[in-house]
Amino acid sequence: MERTKLADSLTRESFFYEKLQKGKSTGMLKLHFPTDICDEYRVMGMELLGPSLWDLKYFCGGKLSLKTVLLIADQAICRLKSLHDQGIIHRDLKPDNFLMGRGREGNKIYLVDMGLAREKVLAPGNPMTYNGDQANSFLGTNDYAPRAAHQLHCQTYRDDMESFGYVLIDLLKNKLPWSGMTTTVGGQSPEQQMGSKKRRISLDELCEDLPAVFKQYFEHVRSLRYNQRPNYSKLRQRFAAEFKRQGFSHDYVFDWTEKRFKEAVAEPAEEAYVSFSSSSP
Fold first, then answer.
1. Is the Cβ–Cβ distance between 24 and 37 less than 8 Å?
2. For 79-215, where are the E strands, in sequence order?
3. Mind telling me which InterPro entries this protein's record contains (predicted)?
4. Which residues are catalytic?
5. 172 and 42 in a common domain
6. Fewer Cβ atoms within 10 Å of its own Cβ: the N or the C terminal residue of the chain?
């Protein structure tokens, strides 16, 4: 819901959800009804989903295991391909915008929040960057925004993929190399400092202590030209190969699944203990 006296963001967002539904894209939020007016509010009806990856990361102690992150990568890359197949650039990928389903869909990852999304702007020729439709201001979330967002460049497929790469690193490490930049230094805002750090950092430093597949991911993304689509299948295959190399079982058992199961097993024993302790002699 949003007040009608505020700028309308829901109408555009509902347009993208409707477009994705027509494309029968898996793991996209179902729209029950598009934007409508109810008294002094604009209202959009959406299906109820489960917790976000941000919530689940902290439920699991602040970071996730390599197995869980690789399971996430496999599904999320499919969601990004579906989004890009419809000519949509998300422009605000972060752990908060990946939600788990509910019930039978509990192991399915959904991509949500199209509030900053826009249709892909094609550039003439085959440029590396395109400045013909620059943003007026920074768009996205500082920690996860691509370099293009900091430079106010028109964002494209590879920029969504870059943002998602930062999401993966954050889920594994609970920090990014620029996470501590929260105050203005030397006249530079945190946003400017982060943008500079993202442009200067080497992939070896960015992916330090992680399997080589993460560096390979960024190498592929950074090699793409403005109009070029990522090789989604190749990226998924690389993560799948690492999953197999680590000896993990593709059982859709995430870290939070195990934690909930252990808590559920422990609860009856704790209840029995409390009942026994409080009984009369």
1. no
2. 88-89, 98-100, 109-111, 118-119
3. CK1_Ser-Thr_kinase, Kinase-like_dom_sf, Prot_kinase_dom, Ser/Thr_kinase_AS
4. 92
5. no
6. C
CB atoms under 10 Å from CB of 119, counted, come to 12
Instruction: With respect to residue 157, please indicate whether it lies within any of the assigned structural domains.
Output: yes
Alpha-carbon distance 78 to 234, whole Å? Answer: 12
Tokens 């030397």: give the residue: 186
Long-range CB contacts for residues 175-182, cutoff 8 Å, separation at least 24 = 176/143, 177/201, 177/205, 177/206, 178/143, 179/143
**Residue of 252, 220, 271, 265 lying closest to 104 (CA atoms):** 252
Which pLDDT score, from 0 to 100, does residue 279 have?
47
Print the domain residue range for 114: 53-245
Asked whether residue 256 is domain-assigned, the answer is no
What Cα–Cα distance (Å) separates residue 279 from each residue in 74, 78, 225, 270, 273? Answer: 51, 55, 72, 14, 10
The verdict on 155 and 59 lying in the same domain is yes
How many structural domains compose the chain? Answer: 2
Domain match, 209 and 134 both:
yes
Residues of the chain with pLDDT under 50: 276, 279-281
**The pTM is what?**
0.90
103 and 161 part of one domain = yes
10 Å Cβ neighbour count for 31? 19
Q: Which amino acid is at 79?
A: R
Compute how many other C-beta atoms are within 10 angstroms of the C-beta atom of residue 8.
11
